Fold:
Amino acid sequence: MSFRAGYGIGGGVGYDPNGTSPDPCNSDSSFSSIGAFAEGNLAIGPLYGGANINGGVTFKESGEISPYTNESTPYGITPKFKPLIRGSLSAGIEYTHYF
Structure:
């Protein structure tokens, strides 16, 4: 289960009951992660690209605390053409508890 909150030229909160952990290397059966994220995307016509990063700490049931970071650069082609130029920036905090 994942929660995200952020603020930008709008604001928003996201909830995903099937959300994945911000820390994909974690294999414990029960843990919590808290951290921060930043995302930026740009599309011109059907072409899009972006950059995403997140990082924080994971609290394992065993009492261990470990830091994590993840980066990705999504890109590709989409059938969406309008508006011709589209973009987004977002940043905020994220919390995940894995049962």
Observations:
- The longest strand covers residues 31-44.
- The CA atoms of residues 13 and 43 lie 23 Å apart.
- Residues 2-98 form one domain.
- The chain has a mean pLDDT of 79.
